Amino acid sequence: MLRPVIALFISTLTAIVAAAEVLPGELPVDAYEQSNENAGAQPVENPDVFAAFHGQDGIDRIVDDLVDRIIVDPRIEGIFRASDLVRLRRTLKEQFCYLLGGPCEYTGRNMMDAHKDQGISTREFNALVESLQAAMDTEGVPFAVQNKLVAKLAPMKRDIVTR
Ligand code: HEM
Fold it and tell me: d(Cα 118, Cα 115) in Å, to the nearest integer?
């Protein structure tokens, strides 16, 4: 009687966990439902945008540069000290690739759940966006195209900033 219920529960849990391509070194997180909806916005429709970011390789470089910057930025580095940076790099790469119209699925948590315990302020939010802009400059993404990504991220502030 109970067996089918348990089997269904386990298969659902496996499906949720198996969908993410978790990298070696990532720490486990509590189960959550995976969906591109968690990325917080719809992708841009113009394929030129993904190309102007130099595709997946360009996005990977931008995210790695962004993370390298924020973990040494005295304004915000303390917030990232207890974080799983392997997972953060992976999910940010997925999220940006998805939002920029690339062939990616976002498998991370939604913005509200990912940031709810961090106590992030508007100043701290702006500090991260500054580092993102510097990383996009370094990659040689034209300013007008940078703004396509910034425009997708800006409204997420209401789910990320809690103080
Ligand atoms: C629009 C801006 C932002 C975006 C798109 C974004 C995106 C993300 C993503 C995709 C994750 C990983 C979700 C997961 O693990 O499932 C994450 C986690 C995290 N974010 Fe953000 N984030 C933003 C702003 C910020 C800011 C401003 C801060 C702090 C200054 C911050 C601090 C963190 C921290 C500490 C984690 C890790 C949480 C943990 O270890 O559980 N984020 N963010």
Answer: 5
CA distance 33 to 55: 27
Ligand 1: residue of 26, 67, 111, 123 to mutate (most ligand atoms within 8 A of CB) is 111
Quote the Cα angle for 45-51-52, to 5°: 100
Question: What domain count does the chain have?
Answer: 1
| Cβ of residue 108 lying under 6 Å from some atom of ligand 1 | yes
The fraction of the chain above a pLDDT of 90, given in percent, is 87
Ligand 1 near 149 CB (within 6 A): no
Residue minimizing CA distance to atom 37 of ligand 1: 83
Supply the range of the domain harboring residue 67: 2-160
* Lowest-pLDDT choice from 17-21, 54-58, 82-86, 144-148: 17-21
